[in-house]
Structure formats: structure tokens, C-alpha cells
UniProtKB/TrEMBL annotation:
Pfam families: GerE. The lineage of its organism: Bacteria, Bacillati, Bacillota, Erysipelotrichia, Erysipelotrichales. InterPro entries: Sig_transdc_resp-reg_C-effctor, Tscrpt_reg_LuxR_C, WH-like_DNA-bd_sf. The keyword Transcription applies. This is Helix-turn-helix transcriptional regulator. GO terms for biological process: regulation of DNA-templated transcription. It comes from Amedibacillus dolichus. Keywords: DNA-binding, Transcription, Transcription regulation.
Length: 65
């Protein structure tokens, strides 16, 4: 369901990195990070990052380490 980049972004989100920190770690712009997050929210039909994380965990697209 998720692209590799979307998965990377959400793994860093659940590891408590900020949008800016994720952008720096992935060597992409803040806007690109926000676009990845928005794309995932649209795919899932949810309205926020937290809802997206919960849904991705439920669907087993992400795992808590």
C-alpha cells in the first residue's frame, strides 16, 4: 500500500522525529515530507497524522519496535 518513501517517513514519525528532522535525515525538503504524509492520509481516508499512524498499525503496514 505504501511506497518505500512513505513508509520511511511514517517510521520516522512514529520514532518521534519532526517534519524538519525527517526531511534532514532523508535529504528531502520539508514540503516533500508533508506531501508524503498527505498522500498517505488520502490513501487511507483519514484526517490527521495520528489517525494515519493508527490505521497503518491496524493494517500492519507499520510495526512498533
Amino acid at each position: 500500500m505504501l511506497t518505500q518513501r512513505e513508509s520511511e517517513v511514517f517510521k520516522l514519525l512514529i520514532a518521534n522525529y519532526s517534519t524538519k528532522e525527517i526531511a534532514q535525515r532523508m535529504n528531502i525538503s520539508d514540503k516533500t515530507v508533508r506531501n508524503h504524509i498527505s498522500n498517505v492520509m488520502l490513501k487511507l481516508g483519514v484526517k490527521g497524522r495520528a489517525q494515519a499512524v493508527v490505521e497503518l498499525l491496524r493494517l500492519e503496514e507499520l510495526k512498533l519496535d
